[in-house]
Structure formats: structure tokens, C-alpha cells
Amino acid sequence: MLSFSLIEALLGRRSRRFFMGAEIPDGVFAYKSRYKPMPLSELEKLLIVAACGGNTSWHYMIYRADRYAPRLANYAGAAGGRIFPSAAGFHTSMTFFTDDEGVYVLDARDAPAFAKRREDGSLDIEEILKALNRRIKKLRDKRLGMPPEIPYTEAHNTWGVNHPGTLLVIPVGDLSQHLILNLCYMLQNGLVLYDDINKRSVPGIERFKNIVDVDNTWPLTFIEQWSMTEVTVELSTSCYAGNLMLQAMGLGGWMFNGLDAFSVLGASGNPDVPGLGFRYDINERWPYPNPTGIEGIMEGFCPPHYSNMYDAVEAVHRRKFGPGGAVSSRHSGSMERFPKGTLGSRSTQPGIQGMRSFAGTVYL
């Protein structure tokens, strides 16, 4: 695995789907394995989860922007780098996974460096896996509560997904937090929001004309779509990294989204199909249920997990600028590489009105 060529992983990437214990019951590919299901070893499982959601030590942030030069731009939500990229270092996603033994979550979005880099810049994979293992929490025994059948699983995946012996990795992003971070990013770059749905400026925005051009706007619907796209890229590249790891390890598997996202999160509406167990709300005005988080595990930065959106914005501010935050003088991480006084200044962000939060999903 360690000597496997990146070029070979890229050019040899295939969805190798059939596994021990599997059965395709009908059609031209009808076949039944003569073996019993063989789950992945603990090491194999950790390597795949590390590829999907692991930590790559401290990141270098974004060194320069015109409004910050020559200081660091303070866009980032976290100071620890991760295997996959995230828009401006926001990193709002967490990695859930399930196998025969239970349902788990890896929370590494605000983790410090898993390992210190050697003199040559390399990292010790064993040290990384040990640190990763310490940040995995078991949520419940037994496999994810979602049967491999229609309507919870797409018809073409019912034979092989979430069956005995399989590992299913599910990155979940907090779109509400990502949108708040994008609003901060806009303000930090001289942009403010315009409510193009109600055809009006944000009430009270003129109070901030001393720090920003209140006429330099982005439409609300645009920034919502932009944020959804950025979260999707974060989750997709997480799965793609895991898929490349499968190639290097010689394992079967594939990257896909052939599951009902609401059922996976826990909003199937069927008590026998609990999924990950996210809290969700419904409203006659909404076409779909709105999953927002799991209490104490992954809570969306929006009501009902915060009393109002002002508190949610303050929580994002603490994540960025508070102790252990990406832009904090009280962090034992990448900030120590730079002289004191070179960080972007702390600023108070205005409150915003409530928005929906949807935890997006992409599957490996």
C-alpha cells in the first residue's frame, strides 16, 4: 500500500463491486458468492476512514489577500489540515461510518495535528492512525438502521450496500455553519448579502457602512447555492480520497450516492428506519424534512440547536477566534510559525436571520 503509485491509483480506479458473501439475485450478472462475508480488518477500516476524514497536521492557512496584505487571511474555521480540501479552510464536515459492529463518528474538524512532521516533512502513518482512533466515538451497536431495499436504497444498489461484511462511510456537512462562514468571508472581502427573495437589503445593514460598502452585494439565493456547492465538493473529495485508498489496498468498493439522503440521516419518517438518528423538522411550506443534527455529536449551527441565529454566529466566532481556534494566539499550532501581530484582527460579525440547515451526504 505504501509503495502503490499515485498514477496507478488514478488510472486504475474502478468500482470493483462484488465481494465475499454477496449475491446478485437476477439479471445477466446473477451470481452468488460461495464464501461467507469477510469484514475488513481493524487496520483496513482505520486506513479507509483516515483517507476519508484524516488529519494532515497543521495547515498553512491563506497567506495573503488584498484586504489583509501582508497579514494572514482569517477565513479558516479550523487550524488542523485534513485529507480533503475545504473552501477557505472552513471544514464543517464530520465522518460517520458503519460496519457489522456498530455506527461510529470521527470528529476531526477541530482536531490539533495528529502527528508532528519529521525533518523531511513526512508524517508517520502509524502515529496518525493511533490519534485518529482516539477521536472515533461509537454511537450505537449493530449496523446502520437502514435496510438495503427500495425506497431507502436505489434499486441498483440494493444487492450490495449496507450488507453484512461491508463498511459504509458517510461524510456529513453542516451547511448552516458553512453559510455563516461564507457570510463572514463576504464581509471580510467587502461584500454583504442582498435579500433577492423579498427584493430588499438586509435590515440594518447601513449601520456597518463604516467597515464595508453596503451596496456591494451578493444575492441570498446565490450564496445559498454557492455554499451548497462548496460543501458538496468537500464531501465528494473526502470520498474520492477513500476511493483511491481502496485502489492502493487492493480492496473492492466504490464511491456513490445511491441512497436516500434523508433516510440515511434519520428523516425517513419510518421509526423502523432510524438511520443516523439526526433530529429533523417538517413544515408544510417545505418540500422535504430538514435534518439539523444529533445532540452532543454534530449539532447544526442553527435553531433548534441554538436559541437563535445570533447565538449560532457567536458560536462560529468562538470556533475561529476562541481558545484552540484557527485564528487564536492561544493555539499551539501553525500560528507559532508566524511573528506576533501578523494575524488578521478580530472583528464582530453582525447577526443574521434564520436559515435552513441541511446536512449533506456522499457515500463510499
- How many discrete structural domains? 1
What count of helical segments does DSSP give?
7
CATH superfamily: NADH Oxidase
Quick one: biggest sheet? 5 strands, antiparallel
If you consult CATH, what is the topology? NADH Oxidase
Helix content: 10-25%
So what's the CATH class? Alpha Beta
Q: What does the oligomeric state look like here?
A: single chain
**Class by helix and strand content?**
alpha+beta
Report the strand count. Answer: 15
CATH hierarchy: architecture: 3-Layer(aba) Sandwich
Radius of gyration: 22 Å
> Which blocks of ≥5 consecutive residues have pLDDT under 50?
333-364
Shape: globular
Mean pLDDT across all residues, rounded? Answer: 87
Strand arrangement within the widest β-sheet reads 7-6-5-8-15
Order of helices and strands: HEEHEEEEHEEHEEEHHEEEHE
* β-sheet strand percentage: 15-25%
CA-to-CA gap between the ends? Answer: 19 Å
